[in-house]
Amino acid sequence: MLPPIELLQLLKNENNFIIATHINPDGDGLGSSIALSMALQAFGKRTILLCRDPVPWQYKFLPGQERLFVFKEIQHTGYKAQDFKNLILVDCNDIDRITDSKDQDDQIARHLTAGSRLSTAVIDHHGTEKSFGDIRWVRPDSAATGLMLFYLIRELGIKITAEIAINLYAAIATDTGNFRFKSTTPEVLRVAADLVEAGAKPYVIYEELFGSWSRERFALFTKVLGTLRTENGIAVTKVTREMLEETLTTHDDTEHFVGLPMTIKGTKVSALFKEVEDNYYKVSLRSRDDINVAQIAELFGGGGHKNAAGYKIKADIESAEKRLLNTLAHSEQ
Description:
By secondary structure, the chain is of the alpha/beta class. Helices cover 35% and strands 19% of the residues. The radius of gyration is 20 Å and the shape is globular.
């Protein structure tokens, strides 16, 4: 997997890079972004890591996660986004994935979305591809953006340190379900082995990503299980704001919940509805085999991967569920 020459030239010849990943960051977006920042700084480059949202608790173990600034923090540092002339989107390929309309009163958000002032590049593996970016490296066939970053860093001739290896291994482990998903190819395992040799410890990373739930999170999970209903191979669960308040948890604690009903034999699609505001939900989707939930999500203005995607919807919960179930039913015809 070779990165585009134009991307390599940009990283070698330019300086002052903003590295940004998507809102509600996950292990792939964070691990890939941090690894890229570390690699470029080892190359003598100046970088700043930005995200609309803070690092979720389960990713606080990543070396270098403290480098990431949320938009509203940047003004309290010595950095000025206006000093950075190059923007790299990591694990997303649409400028709308790093901010939303509510952020436009933020000077950083305005700077990032003023594309004419920035040279832009995209490094991503999502199948729902947009047109943003002067330089685009989008590989839907890649198991994770972290896998792409491994090849990019190697092609730049930069040593993969233990800290970089931990971030890249965590990125790949996140998007392969700890190497359980269909995307886990011999190539993925070979790269993982190289990262282990460089200093990543699989058992430690597994515990941090998948094996360490707080009591509060487990309490939330039991409430979510109580909402489970299945219909024609489709499993639906819900998270309400009341559940979060009762268990002293946040939406970060729901990560991986959507995939758990997939363990029920015969389940083809799992949908998790997360209440954000009154009649406003974030919907996470997971599927098996050839059921393309990214295409389903696109119909609602979202996107993602073939077997893992999501979208937002403004509707009451009954209407939101009905619309999804009808869309899934028509997609099978």
